[in-house]
Each structure stands twice: as C-alpha cells, then as structure tokens.
Amino acid sequence: MDNLKYREKIRSPEEAIGLIHSSTRLTIPLCCGLPQTLISALIQQMDRLKDVELVSGLQISYPFLEEGLEDSFSYRTWQCSPPIKHLLPKGTVKYIPMRQGDAVGVFGKNGVWPVDGAMIQVSPPDNDGNMSLGVSIGHALPLARQAGLVIAEVNRRMPRVFGDSSIHVSQVDAIVESDRTLLNYNMKAQSGEKEIKIGNFVAELIPDGAYLQIGIGAIPEAVLVALRDKKGIGFFGMGVDGIVDLYELGAMEPIAGQENTPRVLVTETLGTEKIFNFIHENQLVRGYPIPRVINPREAGKLDRFVSIISAIEIDLFGQVNSETVAGKQISAIGGSFDFLEGAHFSPEGKSIIAMTSTTPDGKHSRIVSTLPLGSAVTIPRHCVNYVVTEYGVADLYGKTLAERGKALIAIAHPDFRDDLEKALREKRVGL
User: How far is residue 351 CA from its own chain's centroid?
Assistant: First the structure.
C-alpha cells in the first residue's frame, strides 16, 4: 500500500465533517458499525448543518435524533424500532415499508432517494490498501462505492472480515483515525421456559448441515442453545454471539461435502467482542454486501437453508404481522421476507415462524381469528410453512384454510382455543 496516499487523507473529525454541507443525504452503517467519532463530530456542527438526512436501518443508539437536533438531522429508514417510533408523527423519522434487501436499489445513484455521501467505519488498511467494514457491510459498502463523498473512520478495533467486505483507500475522501470500543449489543431478554420449549421444537426441524438465518432475542438465543448436539451448522445473514458457543461445542464441525466451505456468511454482525474477535481474519467467515446475502436468489442456492423469523401475531388463515401493534408501526420487514423466500427455493429448505403463544402479560393470544384493522401483513398466508409456539409445531404447507386454522389452534394457548375454534366455525362460509 502507498502509505503516503493514506496519510494525505487523514483529517481531524472536525475537518472531515467540514466537507459535509446542509441539505445532504448521507448513509451510515447499522448497529455495531456506527462510526461514533464521526457522528459526534457531525452533531457538534449542528449549528452549521441544516436538513441533513441520514439513511440506515436498525441502530443501537440514535444520538443524531436527540431532542434539539430536529432542524439539523432527520432519519430515513427501513427499520422503525421502538426507541424512535414516537418521532414518526413529527417527520424526524421517515419510515419506508420496504425489504432491507432493496436498500441499495432505493438509495443508490439511480434510486428513489440517492445518497450524496457516506460515513463509514472500517479496519486499518491491509498491505493492498483495503479497509474492511467488518461488523456492518450491508448497504454501507455498496452505497459508499457509489457516493460522491466518503468519510471513513479507521478504527483499530474493527475486525477484518474476508470476502467482499472492503473499500480501498483510493475510494475514500477523508480518513479519521480512532481507537475506541465498537458499540456492543448485549442480549437483555433472557430465555424462559416458553422460549426454551420453542427452541427445542425449532431445533427438531433443523437437520445437520443446515445454514441458518437467525435474529436476536430470547427465542433465537434458545434455538442456538438447543442446537448444541447438531453437526455442520452454518449461518447466513447475521453474526451473533451464540455462534461462537456453537463453534466451541463442535456443532459447526463440517459434515461430508462441507470441508472447504465457509460456515458463516454475513452482511451484519450484532453482538459483543465475543463475536467480533471470532469473525476477525477467520477463514470460516465471509462477509458480503446486502445484494449477496439478503437476497432470496442467493439464499436459495444453499442446501438446507432454514429461516427463523419472529412475529407479533398470526391469524387463522396464516397471515403474519411482524410490524404493527394496534395499527402503529413498532418494527419492520427487515430481511425476513427475503430469507423466507430463500428457504422456499433452497433444496430441503424450511421457513419457520417462531413466537410465544401469548403476549408477555399473557392477556392476549398471538394466534388471532383475524388480524386487527390497520395491521401490516408482513408475510402473506401462501408463504407460511412452519409456525412454532411453546405448544408445538403447525405445518401449514399444502393445507386448506380450515386445516390451517385447526393446526394453528392446536398450538395456541389453551385459554384461547375455545374462542379460536368458535371463530373458525363462523369463518366456514369463506373457507
């Protein structure tokens, strides 16, 4: 690498952010990849900057949306998480109901909302001048490659991931060096008896040699624990701390035919130093931009690809709502639909909707007769395969509407089954 070219681009945080103008649209990475030094410097220049629109998805923290910054910054996103949903009516958060896999198309140079610039966080350059986006490759890398202005926070603690995860020194306009702990995602929800039962049911559906798409939360954690006796397990989509435990237990040990294949293919990594250290220069791991991962055509190429998706509720026809409560947006589509379709096309693939049978307070069933008015249909009924609660597994594939209803009632909480059966009988005219 030409060290002179690298050094010539080093700026102070203030100088680097000085390259940004008002009325600019900037993309930033997700979650653990948020460039904290650059974001802090951006906020410090709030008096100079007006109408700057940031573009990204889920974040661990949203410092740029704090009270008093409304005139300077807004957020256009495909992931409306609970901490920011109250900003929807104000227009500070601009939620787009879209697949995460469409982010590059929507925000690319030929998209509906093309970005002007990118602020990214990367590893120090290798000998060839390539800097890895490490824990957050996703949309940030391909959009940075198209952006007119790229500011890179080069953090010595960012892991370097093999695959297509890097941007070259020549492709960035300014470099700000840092040495700070990456934002960590620490699991808060603990798996209880219900989640453990669900995890065990899900694990029974997963064969040796499967590639899993798995999210975050108590149920995914329980699933990972239940997989400890499997072999040849791989991961596709997101890296989480639980992967390291399965590796150490031998559950990722390749089966016949897998000897030379990476076991972890990620576009985002959400966790702590545990997973960050694991993915660093690990030949078992490959990192790729969104179009290579959150894409049903790519996931469908994998044998035994299993998608495990959470849900808020499902009706007796099989329609799934993963986004709204009482008609109000609290979550998003994310990559769920892409992964579900990928499982459909994968040889021996399976898609699984996993959820507790009731809301946390136990007062409401998550299997409902009809989705409430105003609910989002995140997954249409014809796409649903397995549904799992703590009461068992409902396989909806190939079933009539009446058969679907009966299968779902069988895994509903017993306190709600009579009402659901009555509702099903009343629906018979339309079945």
Answer: 16
Task: Count Cβ neighbours within 10 Å for each residue of 294-315 and write b for 16 or more, e otherwise.
Answer: bbbebbbebebbbbbbbbbbbb
Residue 429 in this model has a pLDDT that exceeds 50 = no
The domain ranges of the chain are: 3-178, 193-430
Average pLDDT, stretch 119-129?
97
CATH superfamily of 3-178: Glutaconate Coenzyme A-transferase (3.40.1080.10)
Backbone angles phi, psi at 236, to 5 degrees: -140, 125
Report d(CA 427, CA 431) in Å as an integer: 7
* The two domains 3-178 and 193-430 share their CATH topology (first three levels equal): yes
Give the dihedral sign, CA 62/65/66/72. positive
Strand order in the sheet with 313-315: 320-321, 313-315, 367-368
Pick 193-430's CATH classification: 3.40.50.920, 3.30.360.20, 3.40.1080.20, 2.60.40.1740: 3.40.1080.20
pTM for the whole thing?
A: 0.94
For the stretch 192-219, pLDDT in tens is 999 999 999 999 999 999 999 999 999 9
Distance CA 118, CA 141 (A): 9
> What type of residue is 391?
Y
Which pair of tokens denotes residue 371? Answer: 């989705």
